[in-house]
Amino acid sequence: MRVLSGIQPTGPFHWGNYFGAIRQYIELQEVATEAYYFIANLHALTTVRDAAKLQQYTLDGAIDLLALGLDPSRATLFVQSDVPEVSELCWLLMTGAPMGLLERCVSYKDKIAKGLKADAGLFTYPVLQAADILAYDADVVPVGEDQLQHIEVCRDIAQSFNHHFGQTFVMPKGKILDSSARVPGLDGEKMSKSYDNTLAVFADPKAQRKQIMRIVTDSRPMEDSKEPVGDVLYDLYALVATEDERDAMAALYRRGGFGYGEIKKALADAAERYFAPARERRAALAAEPQQLREILAAGAAKARVKAKATLKRAQQACGLSDW
Ligand code: TYM
Q1: For domain 203-283, which architecture applies?
Q2: Which of 53, 111, 302, 312 is the catalytic position?
Q3: In whole angstroms, what separates CA 285 from the centre of its chain?
Q4: What would the DSSP string read from start to end of 185-238?
Q5: What pTM was computed for the model?
């Protein structure tokens, strides 16, 4: 099984990124024959237009993944733009990507629906993502639910290329975790940087506690019982609590007679404890910038070998570069 996934460096990673995707990266690196994970800085260019910030977020993102358990001896970690073959492959795929398919993609459609102007980068974003996936012959792509549409688009594009030019690309499959495919944000909507409703994985614990204490709750009378699942505080707590703590909290909800303040405090405590070991590892990694650059350079070199071979195969299939 060959695993691949990417994550955009548009700011600090949040719980949605971790529980929806990164946690899967770490689990899958143990069982995959090859695992490729990258920081999608080319995709981030569609939203981050500040060179210093993009560079910082890119390096921070790589440190975060390592701190959260990505092991460079098991998985290839690299920066998307360090493998230019993918951008070249993207063009080949673009020539066969139907406009209608891209017009139906949510990130583009939402922007247009809001009356905002989109650029060609946002419109063709899913084609670059398809190139990312197909370049490494990935068969499993661990993601959160919001990315499943892009993986479907990737499959459609690959199928069409294979149909026209003969079997060239491996068909990938998306993989989500049922328990955290769509992590809610502080307002109950999907947690997302663009909704400004995130809990950062490596937030300062004190600041995060304040953020949690400010979560708006309903005006349920104290004595009423309440179904835990679907309540934002409970759903977030369930991610960072132990199984016993989670069961006890669910029982408390069903019994009633609790205040939300109590739950928020429990959530802040559990969050601080859950991410404490990664926070320590992160501090150690951040103190070794040279080591990080070496990991990324080695990752890019390895990723390029694979992407080059796939690009060559695709070029030959469609009549380019065979003389
Ligand atoms: P991005 O950077 O928005 O998100 C990275 C990963 O985090 C997941 N995620 C969530 N999962 C559950 N609940 C949430 N609230 C939540 N928010 C984010 C995303 O589903 C994703 O898995 N287009 C991609 C990056 C990309 C990519 C790729 C992914 C570029 N090339 C190739 C896979 C394969 C993106 O914007 O993810």
Answers
A1: Orthogonal Bundle (1.10)
A2: 111
A3: 21
A4: -TTSSBP-GGGT---BTT--HHHHHHHHHT-------TT-----TT-HHHHHHH
A5: 0.96
Distance CA(320)–CA(236), nearest Å, equals 51
Q: Which one of the listed residues 190, 226, 302, 312 is annotated catalytic?
A: 190
> Does 116 have pLDDT greater than 90?
no
pLDDT for 322 equals 66
Q: What is the pLDDT of residues 124-181, one digit of tens each?
A: 999 999 999 999 999 999 999 999 999 999 999 999 999 999 999 999 999 999 989 9
Mutate to test the pocket of ligand 1, among 17, 150, 155 (most ligand atoms within 8 A of CB): 17
Q: Active site includes 193?
A: yes
**What is the rounded distance in angstroms from the CA atom of residue 287 to the CA atom of residue 92?**
41
Q: Is the pLDDT of residue 323 over 70?
A: no
The reply to whether 111 belongs to the active site is yes
Any atom of ligand 1 within 6 Å of the Cβ of 285: no
Q: Residues 89, 124: contact at Cβ < 8 Å? A: no
Tell me which architecture the domain covering 2-182+288-318 has in CATH: 3-Layer(aba) Sandwich (3.40)
| Residue boundaries of the structural domains of the chain | 2-182+288-318, 203-283
Mean residue pLDDT of the chain comes to 96
Mutate to test the pocket of ligand 1, among 125, 127, 129, 147 (most ligand atoms within 8 A of CB): 147
